[in-house]
Amino acid sequence: MKNIKSFIERHKLQVAIFGIFLTLWLIFYIVNPYAFSNPYTYTALLSVTPFTILPALGLTYIIIATEVDLSFSSIMAVGAMTFAYIWQDTGSALLGVIALLVVGLIAGAFNGILIAKLKVPSLIGTIGTMFFWRGIVLVVTGGYGMSLHKIENTYVQKIFVGTFLGIPSQFIWTVLITIVFWLILNRHKFGAYVYYIGDNRLAAKMVGINTERTLLYIFSLEGMIAAFAGFLVALSLGTVWPALGDIYMLKSIAAVVIGGTPLTGGVGTIFGTFMGGLMLDLIETGILAIGVSGFWIKVVDGVVIVIALIAQALIREGELAKIRRKKEALAKE
Amino acid sequence: MVEESYVIYAKNIVKRFGNIVALNNVTFKLRKKEIVGVVGDNGAGKSTLMKILFGIHKPDRGELYIKGKLYPELTPKKAYELGIVLIHQERTLCPHHSVWRNIFMARELTGRFGFLKIDEMKKRSEKALQELGLISRIESVDTPANYLSGGYQQGVQISRALVFDADVVILDEPTNALSLKEVQKVLEYVKQLKERGKSGIMISHNIYHVYPVVDRFVILNKGMVVGEFWKKDLNLEDLSHIMLSIAETGKIPPEYSKINLAEKPDSKEVEIK
Ligand SMILES: Nc1ncnc2c1ncn2[C@@H]1O[C@H](COP(=O)(O)OP(=O)(O)O)[C@@H](O)[C@H]1O
Ligand SMILES: [Mg+2]
Questions:
Q1: Number of structural domains, chain A?
Q2: Domains and their CATH numbers in chain B
Q3: Best residue in A64, A205, A207, A267 to probe B by mutation, most B CBs within 10 Å?
Q4: CATH number at residue A105
Q5: Least reliable range by pLDDT among A14-18, B130-134, B207-211
Q6: Is the CB of B38 inside a 6 Å radius of any atom of ligand 1?
Q7: Is the beta carbon of B133 within 6 A of some atom in ligand 1?
Q8: ipTM of this complex prediction, to 2 decimal places
Q9: Could you tell me the pTM of the whole model?
Q10: DSSP notation for B222-257
Q11: Which ligand sits closest to the CA of B89?
């Protein structure tokens, strides 16, 4: 019991987001118990939420490091397109996957160089690369979509977007990748540097952390995972279209922020981001399942984002008050 | 080669920041098992010199020998590997992160594939803070740094030197923001460095903190070494007299010329017993 209490004490933000998630689910369940006891509703949720969560994982690192990346939405399309071309031209899906990861990595590294080495502010720099990569997709495809329907029922499709024990494969991949991101952030030296350069970049530099290289790696990682997410989107829908990824730009950033990673950086969690992404897609699935107009999605999104941010602000205010009390107690000693 | 007999030998260092000449042809030496005090007014160039010895700044001119080897491109990472730790004058803490993470920042203990040895780091952090006598009953090494008072925060910074058992410990104004009791702890720590065969550089503009713990003084003024004295040649009053004179006239009173190593380049290589 005491352990549970101290666990909640230490992970207030994560507990809060989990609570908001459960509340939302309960509301949906009460409004439409039929839909929300149907496994298909959950399969639908789990098959789309990876597209929000995956780019948000890399974005969590970037935002913890007090930077931002808007270009990942375009890199998603670049990844999907790269796969489509390589697979069409060579017939090798494996080669296609390797190529899309490499291209994603390069696109991400390009952001990294702009921001870490050339000191371009990330907001501006990645708006630039967002347009650049979207433009490249439009130029290369001529603005037309590319069908991937021939890939249906191949092993690639089964591995990445099939089902395993009734669970969408892409969700299983997402859970595995989330665990890796969690491990790196919390248990690895690299994750520690991500936190430090967000919490006090000058200090990190002065004690000898290579902040430029760390940033370069963070952006490269985001490029790679965004390209992979774009590939999953294309594979599951059987088509690559020029605007692919667009809708995830604000959604994935929202997932990170709802999950308790403030834009001021220094802190943040992978678990929060995962729940944040899942929650945004629960809202979409839930509203469609209830049967009201899809226009309501944005309204509920907005309400949930505001509630989550208020909860976070209250929790942080509570922490600050605790710090003040501790310091006062120390001063008296 | 004379450079080889020193742990650190910085020769004719020049460092500019735009129009400011922070260091103007400074030569600085540190021997094994020696504690050197670097004193001088604010802006004299003390911190800049230390940042050069630690690889944060690259000198515009001059040579840097460490343990007898020339390092034209020293980085903090390399400096750590060579056993040098610099405790900065500025707070270099991550406010939202725990005491143990702050202590091991940039020098994490890792196992296979770079994964953190968290328990080991916590244990060593506790030990270091206890040795410094700076850990209070209500703080744990899991406490975020911004929960700590100024004195504890400084204690966390100094613990960084303790946990690594560095060969050369550079303390830049370590006694700032500390209470009297805490200052004593830090001075004790500096003193025992020598007994453990280590070298140290102690910086402070408070000569009462430097005098008791060092073997030699280097006095910087406006980016230049104006004085260098063995402690045995000088008592605290002399030093205070010299510092006052530098503050007022920029010069060291002539009666100290004979013992000023900075004015007698030839006799500077005398080894200490
Ligand atoms: N990073 C920097 N950029 C510009 N000027 C600097 C920088 N660091 C130090 N200075 C300048 O160099 C001079 C020496 O500073 P510093 O080494 O911090 O002196 P001290 O530590 O003796 O007080 C000062 O005039 C200071 O303003
Ligand atoms: Mg200084």
A1: 1
A2: 2-263 (3.40.50.300)
A3: A207
A4: 1.10.3470
A5: B130-134
A6: no
A7: no
A8: 0.91
A9: 0.92
A10: TTEEEEEEEGGG--HHHHHHHHHHHHHHSS--GGGG
A11: 2
